[in-house]
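User: What would this chain look like folded?
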Amino acid sequence: MFTGIIEEIGIIKAVQRGAKSVKLTASASLVLEDIKTGDSISTNGICLTVVSYDASSFTVEVMPETIRRTNLNKLSVGSIVNLERALLLSDRLGGHLVSGHIDGVGKVIRRWEEDNAVWLSIGAEAAVLRYIVEKGSVALDGISLTVASVSPRTFEVSVIPHTRDITIISDRQPGDLVNIECDMIAKYIEKFVKPGYPGTKIDMNFLEKNDFLY
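Assistant: Here's the prediction, encoded as structure tokens.
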């Protein structure tokens, strides 16, 4: 589990491609401080497992399913990536709960500036947009952001200077692909209230009986 608060930017040092998979090595410093084999590091928003490391880098293996659902296949030697270590239960939750499991890839449609903020309009499929809520949370390449507005085909976020300075979002331009993880709460609620779910039926009678309606 992560918070979407990026700790540092890493640089891809090696890419070993398999038939459908890839092994990536990224340089880092902060996320290596207490690292051990088997740890999880969010890399552009994707929860990846450390298989080896040294004093200045770590290596992860990416399976075909992850390649299909994310923008990691676009990485090459020299690419920069957002990095965040897994959340400790004693940490402050400065962003929002992020699982590191990507829902889909979106495309930057438009980028513009407004005073100290940079706006991005992100195009996404309907299957992703259904979970995007105005003023709700979304993770883009692992960055916890607030959704400013939503339309039938896009959503928009506004990024403060600090976030631009410490993440790779400052490099995102129209046409670039970004990993999207929707707020997990919406997905669980949908599952629980979906007809046929083997559990308590949540309807207006249930809500009234349990004092949710006033």
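DSSP finds five helices and twelve strands in the chain. If you want, I can go into more detail on any region.
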